């Protein structure tokens, strides 16, 4: 196993994206606060964007970049709705901890 | 796998530095913080000494910074610090996008993600009372799903590394099939303006210029009285021709999201919540 990198290319960036997505998943499962869960969700979206851009660079097309633009749009919409939901949750029970919202469990 | 080990070392260095900075004082605080920094910097220098291109160095360094900031988002306790760590992640992402020749994406990452989304999070921090999150353990029931997820990701990383191909090789057959199933010719749009492509070349006039001028135009530098050829122009062209319908649907989704956010977050006169479905 070589101990230096000759380049930092698409596979390396995909490793980075996978690790970013893993961290986002850990945050998503581990946090007990809606705000932090939304932050971890943004991490997941960011990992998807990085993977799209890297693969677009790999195959020399623009399609991946355009899909990354759509991912950014969806992330923005999700942040807006999520923030509104958090504010409403806080008005209802004065808490956004998930332990106070177990009644939503299906 | 070397890179994966480096990221693990980076996370370890973050934990050490964090443990040092959380101490109340004394020399151990500084020593541990410096030790943690050394955990990150020394492997980075060892691993990155073979990099020659500026884009590689940029991607490598910024990815390490982004991993540290992402770890802080996952285990940090103070909400404002976590939101600012998200800002750091997005700025690093913008740098990586620039290194991948996606300048437009870098610009909208900064303006939308690092601007609007982070400000939105900071905004609700002002609205509501968020206490410190100690990351309460979710109990033993989630240990095995978490382990399974981690195993899946490890396998994915290993497969990615094993199946890595050189950057200029043609795409996989399934990738072409996916493109033609969507109705688009994937290989018609190339990253280099003026490069020979399969069909009619929209930038054919670039090739008819004198060699020096064509080179200057392809490099994207400002050129008097002529349209500037660049990656952003290509993306705009694709977005408004081939991807018009998805683009309009996305704008519709954004409109619905804004209307829904206002409807959910609206408060009645007497403090009762109207419209909220919760």
Give me the secondary-structure topology.
The complex is a heterodimer of chains A (106) and B (278).
Chain A: H1 10-30, H2 34-59, H3 63-93
Chain B: H1 2-21, H2 27-48, H3 54-75, H4 79-99, H5 103-127, H6 143-162, H7 173-182, H8 204-207, H9 211-218, H10 231-241, H11 244-265
Helix pairs in contact in B: 1-2, 1-3, 3-4, 4-5
Protein traits:
heterodimer, A: mainly alpha, 3 helices, elongated, B: mainly alpha
Shape call of chain B: globular
The tally of strands of chain B reads 0
**Helix-strand pattern of chain A:** HHH
Return the average pLDDT of chain A rounded to an integer. 87
Q: What's the oligomerization state?
A: heterodimer
Coarse structural class of chain A: mainly alpha
Number of strands of chain A: 0
Strand content of chain B: under 5%
- Return Rg of chain A in Å: 18 Å
Q: What's the end-to-end separation of chain B, in Å? A: 46 Å
Query: Which spans of chain A of ≥5 residues are poorly predicted at pLDDT below 50?
Result: none
Helical residue percent band of chain A: over 70%
Commentary on this structure:
The complex is a heterodimer of chains A (106) and B (278). Chain A has 106 residues and is mostly helical. Chain A has three helices and no strands. Chain A has helices at residues 10-30, 34-59, 63-93. Chain A is elongated, with a radius of gyration of 18 Å. The termini of chain A are far apart. With 278 residues, chain B is an all-alpha fold. Helices cover 67% and strands 0% of the residues of chain B. Chain B contains eleven helices and no strands. Chains A and B meet through helix 1, helix 2 and helix 3 of A and helix 1, helix 2, helix 3, helix 4 and helix 5 of B.
């Amino acid at each position: 196993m070589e101990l230096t990198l000759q380049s930092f290319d698409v596979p390396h960036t995909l490793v980075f994206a996978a690790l970013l997505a893993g961290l986002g998943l850990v945050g998503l499962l581990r946090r007990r606060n809606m705000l932090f869960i939304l932050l971890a969700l943004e991490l997941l979206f960011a990992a998807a964007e990085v993977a799209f851009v890297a693969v677009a660079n790999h195959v020399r097309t623009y399609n991946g970049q355009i899909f990354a633009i759509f991912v950014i749009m969806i992330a923005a919409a999700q942040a807006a709705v999520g923030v509104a939901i958090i504010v409403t949750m806080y008005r209802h029970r004065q808490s956004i901890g998930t332990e106070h919202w177990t009644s939503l469990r299906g | 796998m070397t890179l994966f080990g480096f990221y693990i070392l980076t996370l370890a260095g973050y934990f050490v530095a964090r443990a040092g900075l959380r101490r109340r004082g004394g020399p151990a605080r500084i020593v541990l913080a410096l030790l943690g920094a050394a955990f990150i910097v020394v492997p980075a220098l060892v691993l990155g000494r073979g990099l020659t291109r500026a884009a590689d160095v940029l991607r490598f360094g910024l990815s390490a910074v982004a991993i540290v900031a992402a770890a802080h988002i996952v285990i940090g306790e103070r909400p404002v610090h976590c939101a600012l760590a998200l800002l750091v992640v997005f700025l690093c992402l913008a740098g990586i996008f620039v290194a991948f020749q996606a300048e437009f994406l870098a610009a909208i990452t900064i303006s939308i993600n690092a601007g609007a989304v982070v400000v939105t999070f900071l905004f609700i921090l002002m609205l509501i009372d968020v206490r410190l999150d100690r990351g309460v353990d979710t109990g033993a029931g989630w240990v095995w799903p978490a382990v399974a997820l981690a195993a899946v990701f490890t396998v994915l990383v290993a497969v990615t590394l094993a199946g890595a191909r050189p950057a200029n090789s043609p795409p996989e057959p399934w990738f072409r099939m996916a493109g033609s199933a969507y109705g688009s010719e994937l290989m018609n749009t190339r990253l280099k303006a003026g490069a020979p492509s399969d069909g009619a070349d929209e930038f054919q006039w670039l090739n008819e210029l004198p060699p020096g001028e064509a080179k200057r135009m392809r490099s994207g530098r400002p050129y008097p009285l002529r349209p500037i050829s660049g990656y952003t122009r290509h993306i705009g062209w694709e977005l408004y021709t081939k991807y018009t319908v998805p683009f309009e649907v996305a704008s519709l989704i954004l409109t619905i999201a804004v209307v829904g956010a206002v409807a959910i977050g609206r408060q009645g006169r007497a403090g009762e919540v109207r419209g909220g479905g919760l």
